[in-house]
């Protein structure tokens, strides 16, 4: 095999993904000269290539054409060969009109005390959208949410110009001890009466203490009674661990 090259369509960029190689090999000046040839055996030999495609711009025309492969090789006797595929098609990607994402979550949270979550709302279209309402949707269960809005249940946001964005804050409060997550943050376009998909659940919060007059301070307790988040816990449930700990006043 002399070359395998993916030629992306105009609205795409392509990057070949390779396994990590030893640093001594990467830095060797003779690496390219002494590089062993890529051989594909006859009778069903296989060689895999992996490419990462990225959309070059938000305003690109919607198309399912990704690009094409060009392959060149030589036989055992040195005869050249070349193959170019037809256009490779993929599933068309429809970009979101509105992108809602979390910019910042506090590193320390007090149980039953308000905290602010920093969010960003971006208009990804070439037209003006809004105004908007942001709120915390309820699930189908009757159980009380572990994290709720503190105060007014809806936040009003003004119109967004084409490709514009705005930063805002939600005032929330945690009502349950243990590993929790913030769910159901939803935005609505009031003018078009359109509800967008809720923000994916935020990473679970680990509340390691609560203010009370019990026995001994939790390992995560601070002098002011705040509860530190414990990173890297994944989805483990910690209610049984922290239910007997508290913070000193």
From TrEMBL:
It comes from the Eukaryota. InterPro entries: TRAPPC13, TRAPPC13_C, TRAPPC13_M. Residues 106-196 form the Trafficking protein particle complex subunit 13 C-terminal domain. Pfam families: TRAPPC13_C, TRAPPC13_M. One of its GO terms (cellular component) is TRAPPIII protein complex. Residues 1-88 form the Trafficking protein particle complex subunit 13 middle domain. PANTHER family: TRAFFICKING PROTEIN PARTICLE COMPLEX SUBUNIT 13 (PTHR13134). This is Uncharacterized protein. It comes from Salix viminalis (Common osier). The lineage of its organism: Eukaryota, Viridiplantae, Streptophyta, Embryophyta, Tracheophyta.
